[in-house]
Known about the structure:
- By secondary structure, the chain is of the alpha+beta class.
- It folds into two domains: 17-46; 51-199, Immunoglobulin-like (Sandwich).
- Helices cover 22% and strands 54% of the residues.
- It contains two helices and ten strands.
- Strands 1, 2, 3, 4, 5, 6, 7, 8, 9 and 10 form a ten-stranded antiparallel beta sheet that branches.
- The longest helix is centred in the N-terminal third of the chain and has 31 residues, at 15-45.
- It is elongated.
- The protein starts with 14 loop residues before the first helix and ends with a strand.
- Residues 78-178 form the Late embryogenesis abundant protein LEA-2 subgroup domain.
- It is found in: Membrane.
- It comes from Salix viminalis.
- InterPro entries: LEA_2 (IPR004864), NDR1-like (IPR044839).
Amino acid sequence: MANSAPPPPPATPSPASKLVRIIAVVILALIVLVGLAVLITWLAVKPKQLVFRIDNASARDFSLKNDHLNATFAFLIKAHNPNGRISVYYGPAEVSAAYDGQTVAFNTLAPFRQPRRNVTWLAATLVARDVALPRDVSTDLAVQKKSGNIGLVVRMKARIRFKVGIFRLKHHTLRVSCSPVKVRMPLFKNFETTTCDLDW
């Protein structure tokens, strides 16, 4: 009876496969280390949510004729950075005012930097110039004007970047929505502060 052939020797990994395995291990270790560094930094910094609110809003030169709106809206926006170790860089901020889902005024604010534990006041002047409105919206707006204030939705959109120590983090798009903002007519002095919702 013929003897069976001996089993082949185990295959020796090629140098190329060893190199690929080493590179994979190194990359995985780097990912873990970076993740731990980010987590530790995040816990050390203890980031807090930015806070926005509108402290004043008024309208002047308000005119509503033939379903066309002309007005100048002035908003005083309070931006609060409560963080003790994070400063914020804001790009140009787009600010708009809408009534019943329709944008009626728009403006862009200049870029600014907000230091740590800082309150920055933003004065936004938005002009509505011959804005055409649907008849029902125009009628409702006229009724609100007679009551002394107009309920608007004020939105702000800006590209922001956080700075922690010497590190600058990636850009985010910040969206701020404030509603309802009771814009007062010149003869009416009372204003209710409006808090804002944030999304990024």
